[in-house]
Amino acid sequence: MGRIFCLMGKSSSGKDTIYKALAEDPELSLKKIISYTTRPIRQGEIEGLQYHFVTEEQLQGLEREGRIVELRSYDTVHGIWKYFTVCEEGMNLERHSYVIIGTLKSWQAMCAYYGRERMVPVYIEVEDGERLLRAIMRERRQGTPDYEEMCRRYLADCEDFTEEKLLEEGIVRRFQNTDFAVCLEEIKLFIQKEMRYN
Q: How remote is the C-alpha of 75 from its chain's centroid?
């Protein structure tokens, strides 16, 4: 039975970089589940790499087809942005394991959709001060930095990923991303162990 490894953590904790490294590791052979969003593409992002960038009309079409696994809406400083997961054609959990970036809300919805026995949480942590510095540096690299939206995301994460909520979901194992190489190796060994015991 395949598993879905769901990478979670607050913004600027390194999820995207770890996701990319895990998906490209030939020893793991993980398939990617790429989330969808209606927000505008940012400088440096590539369609189908970080996200599938779609219109509201395309989202509605996927809803009519019954392919939406979970859907979240965020009231940003630029209006409502939606993020969601789609059950992709050709997905085969009997033969393959997958990796995805998610939130606690998407984690809960995917557990309900795919079954909790197939889902494995991978929670990544970075000290909040360091995380804020990383967020600022990332925003500075944008053509038009949006510090207001960056701050909204930072504060929202503090509410979304409280210790109480994590414990309610049984997420007790944490991976500290202070040293990227060390953190990545710990996650890789964890995934390999989970796949062996499956």
A: 19
The closest of 8, 192, 174 to 97, measured between CA atoms, is: 192
Rounded CA-CA distance 162/168 in Å is 10
Residue 179: what are its φ and ψ, rounded to 5°? -125, 110
Residue 183 reports pLDDT greater than 80? yes
Encoded tokens for 77: 């400083």
**E strand map for the chain:** 4-8, 31-32, 36-37, 52-53, 68-76, 79-86, 98-101, 119-125, 174-176
Q: Is the pLDDT of residue 6 over 70?
A: yes
Q: Which two tokens stand for residue 189?
A: 């060994």
pLDDT(142) > 90: no
pTM given for the model: 0.86
Burial annotation 70-79 (CB, 10 A radius, 16+ → b, else e): bbbeeeeeee
